[in-house]
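Extended Data, panel c. Modelled sequence:
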Amino acid sequence: MDTQMYRHTLPPIRKQPLVVELNTADTTTLMLLHGIGPAFARRIVGYRDRLGGFIDSTQLLEVYGFTPELLAHIAPYIVIDRDSIRHLDINHLGVKQLARHPYMEYYQARDIVRLRDRGMVFLSEEDLRAVPSMADSSLRRLLPYIDFAQ
């Protein structure tokens, strides 16, 4: 009897396409995306935690090693819930807490706190323009993460 005819070859294991919500997915869920292994999954979650959540899929390019090709490959399988973004309380956080955000430099955080110490309350984008070290490009990136509540 030929044992060859009873051997079954299994197809290679492929990750199933699914849709993943980028701001709430854990590392295990992220690894279900084809092209995302444990290292990328950890980097994505770590950066997302520092950022406060993703507002756009192109922010994945800010994750170390992430390429435009990989983003194009997984883009159809990711969605972003902006309601889960964690905001920066611009009127109450200290310099160190503000400066932890990837889009804010230490000196910008320091200038914000100095202005608050002089009595300024940040109520709008225009108020943030009063920060001497805040360039328009920095402000545009940072605005979706700012909470102007008093």
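The longest strand covers residues 20-21. This feature is highlighted in the accompanying rendering.
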